[in-house]
Amino acid sequence: KAGVTQTPRYLIKTRGQQVTLSCSPISGHRSVSWYQQTPGQGLQFLFEYFSETQRNKGNFPGRFSGRQFSNSRSEMNVSTLELGDSALYLCASSSGQGVQETQYFGPGTRLLVL
Amino acid sequence: DAKTTQPPSMDCAEGRAANLPCNHSTISGNEYVYWYRQIHSQGPQYIIHGLKNNETNEMASLIITEDRKSSTLILPHATLRDTAVYYCIVISTTGTASKLTFGTGTRLQVTL
């Protein structure tokens, strides 16, 4: 079974631009979660989508948004990029059916904002 | 979800057992203990989880104290490929495992 894939793997943007990151979950998984990892703040939860609906949300500004499609693929969008948005963005998928389930993480998209 | 405390770093000789402690003194009865690890520049990888009984799988063993206020992840025969940051996470059974709150973790360095 193929793992979680994320595209692109690397991205360079400038301040004020917007960016869209994509995540394809493991086949059959309906939950996709997004995380931001920075050296200063560590790994922080952004949001989770389950069956095309946002089910959980972290403490990030409205510039960070996401969506999920009927095939469970998910996209994350960051508008009006700031230097502090430079980070590794990780997505993870799971069946979404209960607490005793494993989250499988993708390799991440490394975003650099100049 | 309860807060966890882990030592920032540990060293272990290759072939020896690595014992990684985690303190979760405020854990409540309906919270699970999960362990993930992150090898440099990769996404985190699930290792093991438990509620109150000790657990073992092909990767590791998890020992949870009787009062559940602390736990230890044991890698029985550490190899160089086990060098990573290990995260201990507590998750409520009333929530979902889809929202993980990562602490700073323990950086395990396995040496020859």
Notable features of this structure?
heterodimer; A: 114 residues; mainly beta; 7-stranded mixed beta sheet; 4-stranded antiparallel beta sheet; 11 strands; 0% helix; 53% strand; B: 112 residues; 5-stranded mixed beta sheet; 9 strands; globular
Stretches with pLDDT under 50, minimum 5 residues of chain A:
none
User: What's the β-strand tally of chain A?
Assistant: 11
Residue fraction in strands of chain A: over 45%
Largest sheet of chain B: 5 strands, mixed
Radius of gyration of chain A: 13 Å
Oligomerization category of the chains in this entry: heterodimer
Strand order of the largest sheet of chain B: 1-9-8-3-4
List the helices and strands and how they pair.
The complex is a heterodimer of chains A (114) and B (112).
Chain A: E1 5-7, E2 10-13, E3 19-24, E4 31-38, E5 42-50, E6 53-57, E7 64-68, E8 74-78, E9 87-94, E10 104-105, E11 109-113
Parallel strand pairs in A: 2-11
Antiparallel strand pairs in A: 1-3, 3-8, 4-5, 4-9, 5-6, 7-8, 9-10, 9-11
Chain B: E1 9-13, E2 18-23, E3 31-38, E4 45-50, E5 55-56, E6 61-64, E7 70-75, E8 84-92, E9 106-111
Parallel strand pairs in B: 1-9
Antiparallel strand pairs in B: 2-7, 3-4, 3-8, 5-6, 6-7, 8-9
Task: Characterise the protein shown here.
Chain A has 114 residues and is an all-beta fold. Chain A has no helices and eleven strands. In chain A, the strands form two sheets. In chain A, strands 2, 4, 5, 6, 9, 10 and 11 form a seven-stranded mixed beta sheet that branches. Chain A is globular and about 40 Å long. The model of chain A has no long low-confidence stretch (mean pLDDT 93). Chain B is mainly β. In chain B, the strands form two sheets. A five-stranded mixed beta sheet of chain B has the order 1-9-8-3-4, with no helix packed on it. Chain B has a four-stranded antiparallel beta sheet with strand order 2-7-6-5, with no helix packed on it. Classes of the chains: A mainly beta (114), B mainly beta (112). The A-B interface holds A 4, 31, 33, 35, 42-45, 48, 50, 55-56, 58, 88, 90, 92, 94, 96, 98-108 and B 32, 38, 41-46, 49, 87, 91-105.
